[in-house]
UniProtKB/TrEMBL annotation:
Residues 9-347 form the FAD dependent oxidoreductase domain. Keywords: Membrane, Oxidoreductase, Thiamine biosynthesis, Transmembrane, Transmembrane helix. Pathway: Cofactor biosynthesis; thiamine diphosphate biosynthesis. One of its GO terms (cellular component) is cytoplasm. This is glycine oxidase. It comes from Bacillus mesophilum. It comes from the Bacteria. PANTHER family: GLYCINE OXIDASE (PTHR13847:SF289), SARCOSINE DEHYDROGENASE-RELATED (PTHR13847).
Length: 375
């Protein structure tokens, strides 16, 4: 049962986005309750590789890059803050990411990226000094030193435990069925009954569609299914992630390599396919041929929440005051979670928020030529 029949802010969805929002709201001393229909961080979040790819994914999108980079930087302080508060270690390592280039065109596409201090061009020989088993087919690699990685399910649970320790209420296995605007507050109907909230944040990943429809919005989020495998790496001292053409190999602390990932549009099934696994193995062997000798551990899939332009919806409902959305983070919800949590907490608390970000992420924005079809 619920501890109270009223809360200041109800957050719907306990993936990394809802968990980070609950944490930042609790830090702001808001009375917050988080509702998750399964376990915290168990859906798209636990499927993620955990790369904080501000440079590999966003460099060419001005406002979105500044948001992504600030979120990436927040992780540095959060790592120590959450470890101290919760005792949980979400395994942020310093290896960075090698974005391989197989052709001179790929090298040229990265000219503006290469101007940044956190980025360095490596010749093939230099790249192979860092990862000796890399394929000989590359001409070089961009070394994205700050695109490090974390373990997403632990990060999500660190946020929710941090929120709990700051006074938030966390309800797992509690589905929210509806949110009804009763003018002075919202009535929220859940598995165990109902309660009221002054503000509601929808952070339900691909399942946010359901709430768009209930609140009169035409927006849609499409799942882009990603399939991954894990293999046991007891051969290579690999500390850098390896990335090419949106495929990657990411070393985890416990001698695992996370190998991903496919992109299947509008597929709602959360199980991997043989065809998908074949594809990620093929791409991994192109980058690191010796991976074929490694031992199989497991496979899985998750649904990336994709908006019409590939960028998230973060902000207030255009007509219903006090109703917020934070969904549609596509390939980068792990990277963008701290920035999203902080932005929603600031909007709710009336603190200043970068106006370019408010415009870039508002739910009723118009399509922009630069971003359509991204993903
Ligand atoms: P979710 O994690 O799906 O959370 C939404 C939650 O809402 C779920 O737990 C669900 O159970 C709950 N929910 C839904 N409806 C209700 C309801 N009615 N009531 C209560 N609860 C409800 N991002 C990165 O930044 N770096 C990466 O390296 C990376 N790699 C990825 C690899 C793969 C294969 C995939 C699939 C994704 C990857 N991502 C990565 C993207 C990232 O995983 C997502 O953007 C992120 O997890 C989205 O978080 P979320 O909280 O919005 O969604
Ligand atoms: N960001 C990696 C993926 O979505 O597969």
């Amino acid at each position: 049962m619920l501890k109270t029949n009223h809360t200041e802010v109800a957050v719907i969805g306990g993936g990394i986005i809802g968990s980070a929002i609950a944490y930042y709201l609790a830090k702001d001393k808001r009375k917050v309750a988080l509702f998750e229909e399964r376990k915290i961080g168990s859906r798209s979040t636990s499927a993620a590789a955990g790369m904080l790819g501000a440079h590999s994914e966003y460099k060419e999108f001005q406002h979105v890059y500044s948001f992504a980079r600030s979120s990436q930087l927040l992780y540095k302080e959060l790592y120590h803050e959450l470890k101290e508060q919760t005792g949980m270690d979400f395994e942020m390592k310093k290896g960075g990411l090698l974005q391989l280039a197989f052709t001179s065109e790929e090298r040229e596409e990265r000219n503006s990226l290469m101007q940044l201090p956190a980025v360095e061009w490596l010749t093939r020989e230099e790249a192979k000094r860092k990862v000796p088993h890399l394929t000989d087919q590359i001409i070089g690699a961009s070394f994205l030193k700050e695109d490090v990685h974390v373990t997403p399910a632990i990060a999500s649970n660190s946020f929710s435990k941090g929120a709990l320790l700051l006074g938030a209420e966390i309800y797992e296995f509690t589905k929210v069925f509806s949110v009804v605007n009763e003018y002075s507050h919202y009535k929220v109907n859940i598995t165990q009954g109902s309660f009221t909230a002054d503000q509601v944040v929808i952070a339900s990943g691909v399942w946010s569609n359901y709430f768009f429809q209930q609140t009169g919005l035409m927006n849609a989020i499409i799942p882009v299914k990603g399939e991954c495998i894990a293999v046991l790496n007891d051969q290579l001292p690999l500390v850098h992630s390896i990335f090419h053409d949106q495929h990657y190999i990411v070393p985890r602390n416990n001698n695992e390599l996370i190998v991903g990932a496919t992109k299947r549009w509008d597929d709602w099934n959360e199980e991997p396919t043989l065809e998908g696994i074949e594809m990620v193995i093929k791409k991994a062997k192109e980058m690191l041929p010796s991976i074929q000798g490694m031992r199989w551990l497991r496979s899985w899939a998750g649904l990336r929440p994709q908006t019409f332009d590939g960028f998230p919806f973060i902000g207030e409902h255009p007509e219903q005051k006090g109703l917020y959305f934070a969904a549609g983070h596509q390939r980068n919800g792990i990277l963008l979670a701290p920035g999203t949590g902080k932005m929603i907490a600031n909007l709710i608390s009336g603190n200043p928020v970068n106006s370019e970000w408010v415009e870039a992420f508002k739910i009723d924005r118009l399509p922009s030529a630069v971003s359509i079809g991204r993903g």
